[in-house]
Amino acid sequence: MRSLRRAFLALGVTGLIAAVLKLRGTGGVPPQTGGWRELSGPDLRS
Amino acid sequence: MRVGVVGAGAVGSRAARQLASTPAIAEVVVLDVDLSRARAVVASISQPSRVHEAPLQADADLPAGLDVVVLALPPGGHRAVAERALERGASVVSSSDQVADVRGLLDLHAEARERGLVVAVGAGFAPGLTCVLANHAAGTFDTVDEVHVAKVGTGGPSCARQHHDALAGEAIDWRDGAWMRRRGGSGRELCWFPDPVGSADCYRAALPDALLLVPAFPGVGRVTARVGANRRDRFTARLPMLRRPHPEGGVGAVRVEVRGRRGGGRDVSVLGAMDRPGVAAGAVAALAAAWIGEGQLGEPGAGGLAARVAAAPFLSELARRGVKAASFVGADAARQPT
Q1: Residues of chain A numbered 1-46 and touching chain B (CB < 8 Å)
Q2: Do B325 and A38 touch (CB under 8 A)?
Q3: pTM metric for this prediction
Q4: B68-79 per-position pLDDT tens digit
Q5: Are B137 and B271 in contact (CB under 8 A)?
Q6: Can you list the domains of chain B with their CATH numbers?
Q7: Which of B328, B335, B338 sits opposite A34 (nearest CB)?
Q8: Are B88 and B195 in contact (CB under 8 A)?
Q9: Cis omega before residue B313 (within 30°)?
């Protein structure tokens, strides 16, 4: 019984840590339009 | 022109190869404490008459007659070798991205100026290519308010160790005219890099970019730098590395976001590049060394590339060497870092 309780406690603590790690920070939103275009010719004319 | 490349690792070997294929460079000397590594790099280059190896002594003694020394050593020892190079009358190009190295090299400004030599600090992938991209983007603004740099990926084992240490270190941000110290591993931002890297979560870390960018853009309000990391990287950053770093990482990328005013309104420009970090760093360091020889890297003294190069021709020459920059075009290019 005691080992079962410890296992549940360990699972709970792991889940809590995972949730904190997942939720911390503001993250961001991926761009919905546009994309990368290679710089060439007129872009690199000084 | 004679150029010494100190360090025969992922960056040094690429820098030596790039220098060997530069017509203005008469001779390249590859130096390493492990002579067999230097010898292997020389053997892999197809111009044997112009490239040879030499042992790097423990006291960092350098051969006489070098015009420029490219430092591609593991982070931590760049200042000592740079001092020896200056004593020997050689300009210096350092690829280190360690804060202590960058501070130490910037402190050599007066000595370099007195000797009429150049110390190009942070001439790698990031900082280095990022500084040139920031310079290029800034040229399209009337005033620059903010510069935000992000990098993902690592080069050789030393770069991987530096990435690990940086996440556990103290980040240096420039905010409203003052330096702010923030905890490494904090401040998650989802950054969008050139394809095929795409999106990556990036965090504050002990990165020297702001030290090099702030002097280049007088009046800039905010400068930040972040590095791509996963949760395991963050979780284990304060522990010793759990496994030996890889010989070389995969494809990496950099992204530079510049905010400012132009044409009476606020605007944002996002530039980036994608390559193996060791390859791109070697190309940037080699080109910086070649430009020193041609007198194109500004007045004597120490500083980052943002303040020293004409960005467009530098990027154009890098593109010719295979390291291509890109611009993000789209309404959602901007993000607002915290």
Answers
A1: 21, 24-40, 43-46
A2: yes
A3: 0.90
A4: 999 999 999 899
A5: yes
A6: 2-123+280-315 (3.40.50.720), 129-277 (3.30.360.10)
A7: B328
A8: no
A9: no
